[in-house]
Structures are given as structure tokens and as C-alpha cells.
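TICKET: design request
STATUS: open
ATTACHED STRUCTURE:
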């Protein structure tokens, strides 16, 4: 069966980053399987990806009446909210079975509603701020206030520095609950929702009060870009004492927490080194990168930490090819980068929020039970003294997580969730 798919997005310009690559890969998988895909947005669509995806584009307008889709897929929670923001979008959504992808905001909103802001890192049993996280976060806010021009956003940050933690938690819960109520009413109008992990799919069903059978999960991460990177890194030897943090250089990635953990580990093993590498392409990331460099400059002694902004393909391949383990501390349940790094033969240190398939989670190359900053420090030290071995069986098992399989799995689920499915 061949489908006519409407793919609704709030970010029509395809840029870099894990989220864009996931959907780019899914669209490509659908097209290669013979389905038609029409990208829909309020803004003009420009495909700046490597290897153009030749898909039709239309803007949300009255001309949509001439189209006849089998279903419409919203690529994020933001796209779903955007679709329902006016009568034109509401009318469009009523015409077709609607499916949506939900991911990051699930964990963020849930943790804020239950009182926690940063996931499991240094949170007590009640999921609240603890003094350690409060200290690091306030340090970050104080730096932003000191080094920014006077504005409404800076005034808000200053208030957060001065207010008691109970007030901060209440404010976060209130904002999250308001967003949750808005999103929940739209999600309940969908024929089905998708997440990248089992835990997120189950959490989505509970949070948004939809039947569990309508909340599915599927993921893939192997695409042509990763296969090309693998060829470039194949000849490089990984060093178990070299660690990398590969992500966008923005606050939500909690790179300052990684620096805290690495600094503590370095006092015990001075042979380790850390490279922070990623995109710095906005005012937000520029300000945070400056903050990260300030942290490194104030560490006593000559600590081997290197920050590389907007790396070239050669720089990225060299760093990833020679690093023994990747460290990630951002609050989410799924991370494309760490799976790609495992595919390249490396190891990973991640927070306990991550919901990885059992065969990945239980592998010796993965450390996934980290709750505190001291946990991260201990795992850095453990990996640094453990030689890296190539596990061919594990490598082969990862090959099934291709974008082609991901696209097919999503469509299989959609067929069973269609209103007229038997």
C-alpha cells in the first residue's frame, strides 16, 4: 500500500542537528519505499540538507483543499500547537487522520510539574533541586546577568537568583502545567502519537491520557551521513583516556555539569583529557560558549579541556575517531549522538533518564545509571583505566536501527492506528 503523506513542520528550513536528521531520514525512507510526501508549513520550505530530499512543498492555505492525504504527520509538539493556532489549521486537521511526534517536552514538562527542572542529575527522592545543582545553576545565571545588557530576560534571571528555591519550583510547575494543558487537548485529537523510546511512549500515554495502544515508539539513527563518518574514522585509534562531549553548545545540554565531573576526575587521574565540540550558531549558544570558556580559564592548573566551535568535517571525524567515550548530561530520554558514537566503536556515559533498548543499555560500552555529578566522575575514571575492545556482535546488532527500518516501522504502526483500520 502506498500512502500520500502530509508532513507538517514548524521549522521548514532543514538544518543540522539530531531532530532534523531523524525526520530527514524518515522522509527519505518513505520516499524510497514509493510513498509520496508533501511538506507543509506556514513558512517557505528550503531544503539545505546534504543530499536533497525531493518532496513537494505547500504552505498552509486554502489551496490545501485540492490535496488529498491519507494522513498528516506533525514532526514535533511545537508543530502540533502551531497547526491548531487558528481556524484554518483546525479545519485542515479535521480533514485527515493526524499523527504527532512527541519527545523532549514530555520529560521537561513532567519534571517541572513534579518539581524537578534538570532531570535526575543531583535530584533527591522527591525530584527537587538539591544544593549542588542549585549552586551550578545559580553560577550560570549569575554569569549571564553580569555579562548581558539590561533586558526583560536578564531581569527575570536576576529574580531567579534572588528567589527561594520553593518559589522557583512553583513558577516552573505553573508554566509547565499551562503548556501541558494546551498540548494535551491537541494530542487527544490525534489518531496516534510517536516517541523515540518505550519509556517516553508510556509516559506520553499517562500524561496526555490517551490509550496506551495509541502511543507507540520507534527510532533509527544510521543514515548516509553516519556511514560516511564511519569511513573517515575507521583508521583512527581510540584512546580510553580521551573523552568527548559532542552537542550544540547551549545551556540545556548541561555541559557545565560535565566540566564539574571532569574536573573532579582529573584531580585523581591527570592523564585524561576532554574535548567539547559542537555548533555555536546563535546568540544563545555564543553567550553560553563564552561562559564555558570562562569556567575552563578559572580552573586552577593546566587542565586538558579543549572547546571546538562549528568544527569542520575533518575536525569532527578526528575528534570522534580518537575519543574513547562520549559524555552526555542533557535532560532527555533519547540522544541520537551517543548512539552514533557507539556505532563508531566508542563508549558512552549518560544520565539515568536515558531509555535505551536492553541490548544497548546492558552492554559494557554503556554507562547509563548516573544520577549525580560524582557518578559521572567515577565513570570517567573507570573508563579511563579500561582498555577499549571492539565488539563485532554489538556493532552488527546496531545495524538494524537504520532510517529505512525506522520509516517502515512508523508506517506499520500508523496503518494499525488509522481510523478505518480493521
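STATUS: resolved
RESOLUTION: sequence designed for all positions
ATTACHED SEQUENCE:
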Amino acid at each position: 500500500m502506498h500512502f500520500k503523506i502530509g508532513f507538517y513542520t514548524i521549522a521548514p528550513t532543514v538544518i543540522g542537528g539530531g531532530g532534523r536528521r531523524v525526520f530527514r531520514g524518515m522522509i527519505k525512507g518513505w520516499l524510497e519505499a514509493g510513498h509520496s510526501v508533501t511538506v507543509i508549513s506556514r513558512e517557505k520550505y528550503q531544503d539545505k540538507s546534504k543530499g536533497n530530499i525531493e518532496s513537494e512543498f505547500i504552505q498552509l492555505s486554502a489551496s490545501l483543499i485540492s490535496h488529498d492525504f491519507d494522513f498528516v504527520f506533525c514532526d514535533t509538539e511545537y508543530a502540533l500547537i502551531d497547526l491548531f493556532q487558528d481556524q484554518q489549521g483546525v479545519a485542515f486537521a479535521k480533514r485527515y487522520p493526524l499523527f504527532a511526534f512527541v519527545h523532549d517536552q514530555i520529560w521537561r514538562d513532567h519534571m517541572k510539574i513534579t518539581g524537578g527542572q534538570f532531570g535526575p542529575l543531583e535530584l533527591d527522592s522527591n525530584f527537587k533541586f538539591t544544593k549542588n545543582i542549585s549552586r551550578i545553576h545559580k553560577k550560570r545565571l549569575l554569569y549571564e546577568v553580569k555579562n548581558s545588557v539590561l533586558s526583560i530576560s536578564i531581569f527575570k534571571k536576576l529574580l531567579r537568583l534572588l528567589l527561594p528555591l520553593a518559589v522557583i519550583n512553583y513558577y516552573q510547575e505553573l508554566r509547565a502545567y499551562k503548556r501541558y494543558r494546551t498540548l494535551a487537548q491537541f494530542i487527544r485529537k490525534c489518531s496516534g502519537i510517536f516517541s523515540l523510546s518505550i519509556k517516553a511512549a508510556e509516559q506520553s500515554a499517562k500524561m496526555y491520557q490517551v490509550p496506551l495502544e495509541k502511543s507507540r515508539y520507534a527510532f533509527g539513527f544510521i543514515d548516509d551521513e553516519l556511514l560516511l563518518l564511519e569511513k573517515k574514522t575507521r583508521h583512527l585509534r581510540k584512546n580510553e583516556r580521551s573523552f568527548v562531549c559532542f552537542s550544540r553548545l547551549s545551556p540545556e545540554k548541561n555541559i557545565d555539569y560535565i566540566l564539574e565531573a571532569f574536573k573532579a576526575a582529573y584531580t585523581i587521574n591527570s592523564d585524561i583529557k576532554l574535548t567539547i565540540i559542537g555548533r555555536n550558531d546563535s546568540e544563545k549558544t555564543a553567550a553560553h560558549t563564552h561562559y564555558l570558556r570562562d569556567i575552563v580559564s578559572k580552573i586552577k592548573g593546566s587542565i586538558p579541556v579543549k572547546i571546538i566551535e562549528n568544527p569542520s568535517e575533518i575536525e569532527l571525524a578526528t575528534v570522534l575517531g580518537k575519543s574513547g567515550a562520549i559524555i552526555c548530561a542533557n535532560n532527555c530520554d533519547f540522544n541520537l549522538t551517543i548512539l552514533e558514537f557507539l556505532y563508531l566503536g566508542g563508549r558512552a556515559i549518560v544520565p539515568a533518564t536515558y531509555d535505551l533498548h536492553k541490548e544497548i543499555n546492558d552492554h559494557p560500552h554503556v554507562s547509563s545509571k548516573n544520577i549525580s555529578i560524582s557518578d559521572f566522575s567515577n565513570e570517567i575514571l573507570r573508563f579511563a583505566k579500561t582498555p577499549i575492545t571492539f565488539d563485532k556482535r554489538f556493532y552488527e546488532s546496531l545495524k538494524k536501527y537504520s532510517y529505512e527500518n525506522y520509516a517502515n516501522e512508523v508506517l506499520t504502526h500508523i496503518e494499525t492506528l488509522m481510523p478505518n483500520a480493521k
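CLOSING REMARK: The first strand starts at residue 4 and ends at 8. The chain has three domains: 4-105+178-220+402-417, 130-163, 224-398.
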